[in-house]
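Case study B.
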Amino acid sequence: MTTQNDNLGNLFREAFRDYEKQPGEGLWEKIAAQQPALVPAPKAFPRKGWYFIGGGAALIATLCVVYFSINSQQDAKLQPESAQQKLVQPLAPLAAAETTSSDKPSISETRIKEVVTTPATERSSTASEPSNASPLTTTAPQESQAEVAQSNKQQRIANNITPITTGSTTPPPATPPATLSRLSESLDLNETKGESGTVNKLSLPENKTICLGDELLLPASGGKFYHWSTGETTESIRVIPQSSTYYSLTVTLNDNTQKVHHVRIDVKECATLYIADAFSPNGDGVNDEFLAFGTNISRFSMKIYSANGQMMFETNDINQGWNGRFKGGDAPGDVYFYVVNFTDSNGQPFVRKGRLFLLR
Amino acid sequence: MSEEEEIVNGCIAGKASAQERLYKRYAPKMLGLSLRYTKSLQEAEDVLQDAFIKILRCIESYKAEGSLEGWIRKIVVNTALNHYRDTKRIMAQDVIDDDYNSVKEDTMVYSNFNTADLLNLIQSLPEGYRVVFNLYEIEGYNHREIGEMLEISENTSKSQLSKARMRLRMKLEALQKERIKKIET
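Model:
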């Protein structure tokens, strides 16, 4: 069955040829735990390192001994030698432990200094980042507003989002012009204050027309709190209006002023057409016909062509589908093409073309 | 000494570092494999774990004749099969219907499916179908070999494969249907 025409097999073979998946974190540890421990896993540094560390520890120990003995001489207090060693000994493993965090083995004291200084420089470099970032936010160009507004939209229907501050839209009746100018001032303020380094610009949804049954995202951003007429308090909301609807949004800005925004969503009945791209006329009752279906369609015609351009099927009835028969025989499993002409309830014409797979 | 030999020798000597290298090198690919034989990532990781324990225990028996990956792959497949047997989901000696003869040439052009889609489809198959489909279509064993591996008849293997293919085709079809485009007016 693995013939050259075996597309199914090929599909899977190709897909999984180089398929990889990274195993979960702790899996190796589980496996390793099952291994008889013959040779322990080497530590992060080579064995040579031990000698250096040992040497370093010994050096510290001697230095300490010398230091204490000088001290004791100066203080004119006689301490027995053994007591000094007892004091010094616990220090050695400590020093060794500290040196392990560095990879260049040398005198321990200088190395400990390195260990101490590196975090400090790191801290200063990370601290400089925000201070670098804040001037950037203040100089962010005004044009970016449209980009910012667009970036968080996932509109199903193309539309133009015009930010309210550009003045190209009529402001909602409740908002006097004075508020608008105050708004833009406060926006500028917000931008310079932006701690996170992002530009806070107010963006509000626009009026638009959608098809009945469509879900629509009403996006807003740039404010502190949101209150929609639907009761939701999230930045953006998703709605599926069943008829033309006004939504209003009260935004609390970062300076605690409030802004009320109204958006009108018109709902109209659209023509929709669904066309599958494969069918299997094998009489099992599943997907045996190639059938288009849709809503609000007034006129309809469908033609199906074979790959070499021969018309296999034609109908003007949307409820009639192709059963895969052609001239008294079964049409072979292959790729075919369809052309569907239809008009919506307003008489506007549409054409859809595409390919379909006949599966045998 | 090639890297592979180095790893193998290290593993034979019981070096933890070599064992880890072996794991790091082959685990992602082998997890990709075991995922196809199981229903979930959890199950696949269990198989992978068992397989690697086996691999590390038996590494001495690996003869550098075939490729190391091939050898590892075989162990992972076997472990997956054991796992499948252990879970007592052995295919019933099912009635051999002759529909495997009805599998016709498959000329459908499949497109728009990514590996994740296909993995989902494989994982959604009944166990028996899935194992035979994997062994035959992807690992490339023939029905006689599969029959021996699973202790089933050659014909059962054929019929399982045929059913698996049928089911996959139906599922692919359904998936394509799901992705019908909607006209926006």
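The two ends of chain A are 15 Å apart (CA to CA). The remaining cases will be described in the next quarterly update.
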